[in-house]
Amino acid sequence: MSTRKPPPDATPAGRLREGALHAVLGYQLAQASVVTNAVFDEQVAGVHDLRKVEYTTLALIEQNEGLTAAQLASALAFTAPNMAAWIDRMVKRGLIEREPHARDRRALHIRLTDAGRTLVQRATAAICQAEADALAGMSPAERMMLTELLRKVAASRRAR
Amino acid sequence: MSTRKPPPDATPAGRLREGALHAVLGYQLAQASVVTNAVFDEQVAGVHDLRKVEYTTLALIEQNEGLTAAQLASALAFTAPNMAAWIDRMVKRGLIEREPHARDRRALHIRLTDAGRTLVQRATAAICQAEADALAGMSPAERMMLTELLRKVAASRRAR
DNA sequence: TATTGTTATACTCTATAACTATA
DNA sequence: TATAGTTATAGAGTATAACAATA
Predict the structure, then answer these.
(1) Is the entire prediction scored with pTM above 0.85?
(2) Does the beta-carbon distance from B24 to A153 stay under 8 Å?
(3) What are the CA-CA distances from residue A123 to residues A129, A136, B136 (Å)?
């Protein structure tokens, strides 16, 4: 149970005034991310030794079997060399596999191994549970609204 | 003008299915941050040579004159050594100053110089304008709602 | 004993350049 | 020429440990 209510225009963190920062979306996103990052680090990174990039990669492949490295890099806003390195690490760990592309001999499809699929499913369950716990103060309707608004922001990303 | 409407359950980035990831707040925050980070890099980092940490530090000091390094580190979820390094860099650049604390001789108040104040005000104006441009597809009401929901998420951060 | 600020240092992550194979 | 994937490498950013000064 919370003890004191913070002043109206204060950062949740240090009870500081935000001023113009209140309207800066990038700042509010960063502050909110502190919470989700902590949840991730405790429930996934710490438990399953999975970085955020790695988890997201596995989750995207799970839903889009056969993605290429270029597609993943684009989706995650990562550079190609970094994406390759992360993929390589997960291949060596036995979580994903590279398979030849049907029509383009340069490209490689990436698929989950059984171990990878099991891991990503466990991680997703852990995250959803932990986020729900951490955000118990928000109603399901508020969380849904937040998700849709965030998707609207993300949708304005310039294609590359 | 948008050409095609993306499929219902697709990432804005690569037109990929999200699946369970749709409900993972950390993922949606990261995707939305791609947009605001790009805005920041182009309009602030690139123009005024200011990192996100630096800008936020200046903006918080502007509204909370005399903050200490410990308070800033807490507000930004930074470690003390890193906060000290960022502060040091901005002091050397003439954007902020350290002043002795009235009652605690260990601590130091941090204040903006005139140059720092001018810079942070210009940066804030640039960000607000650029974010508004980038998010032209969202109504003011939607943006306000988003801000409040994000603050609600951030408010659930565990105190430290 | 705990806290503030700092230095030193190692590690993680990211970006750039350059290369190959293929389109 | 452009693209997919990769290697090599440098730089940015972050964390940990340890310290002096003060509370």
Answers:
(1) yes
(2) no
(3) 10, 20, 35
